[in-house]
Amino acid sequence: MFTMSLRVRDYECDLQGVVNNSVYMNYLEHARHEFLLAHKINFAELTAQQIHLVVTNAEMDYKGSLKPQDDFYITVECVKESRLRFAFHQHIYRSSDDKLIMQAKVVGTALNPQGRPEIPAQLNALFPD
């Protein structure tokens, strides 16, 4: 299970003093990119090779709120859903009390240079047979 830590920045919060709901999507995306880098998969290099990782579905279930200066961590687990789809199961926890703030499932695929779904070998290597 991949884990990364972050801290809420003041400008990520709305007038109610909590992290704006749209910011959580950025947190999740950043964690997915870091997960890939930790597995030697560079999102930018794939794009340069005209291999595009795309999100096809995102489900987010909010359980609580983060506030300015809260430290938190995100867990990421990637599973193969089918021959052409994979899913990132992600959780965000507040560090001070390990309270679950959000759980998410982000489903994606990869598009080859011709724009057709195809999982590249380096990504496929994440999924043992």
Model description:
22% of the residues lie in helices and 38% in strands. It has 129 residues and is α+β, with helices and mostly antiparallel strands. The protein has one domain (2-125): Hotdog Thioesterase (Thiol Ester Dehydrase, Chain A). The protein has a five-stranded antiparallel beta sheet. The model has no long low-confidence stretch (mean pLDDT 95). It comes from Thiomicrospira cyclica (strain DSM 14477 / JCM 11371 / ALM1) (Thioalkalimicrobium cyclicum).
Query: Structural class, from secondary structure content?
Result: alpha+beta
Whole-number mean pLDDT: 95
By CATH, the topology is Thiol Ester Dehydrase, Chain A
| Gross geometry | elongated
Helix content: 10-25%
Oligomeric assembly: single chain
- Run of helices and strands: EHHEEEEH
**Order of strands across the widest beta sheet?**
1-3-4-5-2
CATH superfamily: Hotdog Thioesterase
Low-confidence runs of at least 5 consecutive residues: none
The number of helical runs is 3
- CATH class label: Alpha Beta
List the domain count as a whole number: 1
- The value of Rg in angstroms is 16 Å
Give the termini distance in whole angstroms: 18 Å
β-sheet strand percentage = 35-45%
- How many β-strands, per DSSP? 5
| CATH architecture grouping | Roll
> What's the main sheet like?
5 strands, antiparallel
